[in-house]
Amino acid sequence: MQLHIFLDRGSRVPLQRQIYDAIRQMVLTRGLRRGDRLPASRELAEMLDVSRVTVSLAYDQLTAEGYLHGRRGSGTFVSSQIPDALGETRHRNPPRTVAQARIRLSKYADRLLEEPARPQPPAGAIDLSCFTPDYERFPMAEWRRTLGRRLRRSGKLLFQYAAEAYGHEPLRHAIAAYVAKSRAIQCTSAQVLIVSGSQQALDLCARVLINPGDPVDIENPGYRGSHGAFRAHGARVHAVPVDRDGIVVPQLNAGTRVIYVTPSHQFPTGASMSLVRRMQLIDWARQHGSIVIEDDYDSEYRYHRPPLPALYGLAGDVPVVYISTFSKVMYPGIRIGYLITSAPLTHRFSTAKSMMDGQTSLLEQMALADFIEAGLLERHVRRMRRLYQQRRMALVAALDHYFGEAAEILGDQAGMHILVRFRSVGRELDPTRDGVLLTSASKYYFSNAPANEYVMGFTAVSERALREGVARLQRAWSPRAKTAK
Ligand SMILES: Cc1ncc(COP(=O)(O)O)c(C=O)c1O
Fold it and tell me: Quick check: CB of 327 below 6 Å from ligand 1?
């Protein structure tokens, strides 16, 4: 079968996403009918002049979402049960099409950084590409009870608009107490703003602290969520190299308004910013009148010694906006994070937040406060730290076993991922054939991405699967990789 797919190679939308969109659209508008057989991935890859992996990832995503199904050895077919009920409606009432050129988008929309869809691991593949908590180990029964109690007991409060966007006071209070103990941050609950995940805090920083054209320094390699937020709001983003001690201070841009850093566990290299470097950064910010944004996204997971005190507590008169999240210690879908700064500024952030979404959903905030108060979060984090520590050791040991010196491991003292530089790899990985999915670190670099560098998550994968995943990598990349002992 011929599929007429037009790929726009000048677009920022990844090719894999363009293929996914085109096929999905054909399925929904019945250009492709139930049971139709799709070309083999190799065939379509040749037709479109793209790599086979690109087509396979698009097929995998469509299969995971139920649009396609594959029969081993006999091909890939359009599913007989199309998941999107809209498919029927769309077919009967085709949408009014508006010529793309007639929709004038804002400059903000033009600057949005398109985030490629996360590829789904093909059936049977080991997913070393994601660094999320292990949901199987989440204390679901206790969380369900806590939520249920709040639902039953909170009455009217739960149904109303909050007077201000700051967030549920007992939760802010619990956070102020927590950061005092664990991060050496002295603040009151009035300085804590609850946000819908760190991502909203970053967006708020961009709105409140910069004007279009202002220079902002971020880490290279670095977190795409911060790059995307600053860029969308028109910042002139300057990527500053990081070394084993964190951001290289002498390379900061003298005119910068804002410096974004991840000092506890640099994303993605895993470097912990040394105390000397922290002091150097604070001095630099003082001299240049810059504001520091400290993204402390996973400092709970430190495996040998406690994390260094937060920059916020060391900074004295230098303004720091401290950001953290419950995505790592609870789960990302909870969409609760927090931002701490000096009180007058917190109020501006809160006002800006009320313009964005009024407030973060109250039920989860209330339940989370109860969960913390009852010591359940602390217990869960303690357990997960032990579990992740074992998994981290299993991954490091497997890399050592299968690759020896051909794999250089960075950032393994903390966090939920490690960075691995392989001396050489034989070829591009094909998750369907090789049975393992990895994230290349290249997408986090703004320039000069080293070849063969991967971010490997270990927290949601069993020790056995970690070992098997690394063995599969070795098989895929041998004979250049070291043979198993
Ligand atoms: C550097 C960094 N900051 C923040 C987050 C979490 O963001 P959120 O709280 O929006 O889920 C992540 C998630 O991976 C991250 O890597």
Answer: yes
Q: Which residues contact 433 (CB under 8 A, 6 or more apart)?
A: 476
Q: What is the DSSP letter of 444?
A: G
Residue nearest ligand 1's atom 13 by CA: 297
Q: Rounded to 5 degrees, what are φ and ψ at 46?
A: -65, -45
CA of 270 to the centre of ligand 1 (A): 14
Q: Separation of 55 CA from ligand 1 center, angstroms?
A: 29
CA 238 to chain centre: 21
Q: Which tens digit of pLDDT belongs to each residue from 200-222?
A: 999 999 999 999 999 999 999 99
Share of the chain above pLDDT 90, in %: 71
Q: How far is residue 476's CA from residue 469's CA, in Å, rounded to a whole number?
A: 10
Q: Are 336 and 368 in contact (CB under 8 A)?
A: yes
Distance 194 CA to ligand 1 centre (A): 15
For ligand 1, whether the C-beta of 262 sits within 6 Å is: yes
Encoded amino acid at 152, one letter: R
Which residues face 337 on adjacent strands?
195, 325
Q: Which residue from 249, 274, 302, 239 is spatially nearest to 448, judged by alpha carbons? A: 239
* Angstrom distance (rounded) from CA 469 to CA 91: 43
Residue 267: CB within 6 Å of ligand 1? yes
What type of residue is 223?
Y
User: If you compute the radius of gyration of the chain from its CA atoms, what whole number of angstroms results?
Assistant: 24
| Residue 5 near residue 23 (C-beta atoms within 8 A) | yes
Distance CA(374)–CA(357), nearest Å, equals 29
Please state the pTM of the whole predicted model: 0.80
The response to whether residue 221 sits with its C-beta less than 6 Å from ligand 1 reads no
Distances (CA, A) of 178 to 185, 300, 375, 376, 378: 9, 11, 11, 13, 10
- pLDDT number for residue 412: 81
Provide the strand spans (E) within 221-319. Answer: 236-243, 246-247, 258-261, 291-295
69 has which bridge partners? 77
Bridge partner list, 322: 294, 340
Contact call for residues 187 and 340 (beta carbons, < 8 A): yes
What is the rounded CA–CA span in Å between residue 223 and residue 268? 7
Question: Per residue in 139-197, pLDDT tens?
Answer: 999 999 999 999 999 888 899 998 889 999 999 999 999 999 999 999 999 999 999 99
Q: How far apart are CA 94 and CA 25, in angstroms?
A: 12
Residue 299 CA, ligand 1 centroid: distance in Å: 12
Using CA atoms of 21, 23, 28, 33 in order, give the dihedral in degrees to the nearest 10.
180
199 within ligand 1 shell (Cβ under 6 A): yes
Find the 202 Cα to ligand 1 centroid distance in Å.
Answer: 10
C-alpha 66/C-alpha 235 separation (Å) is 40
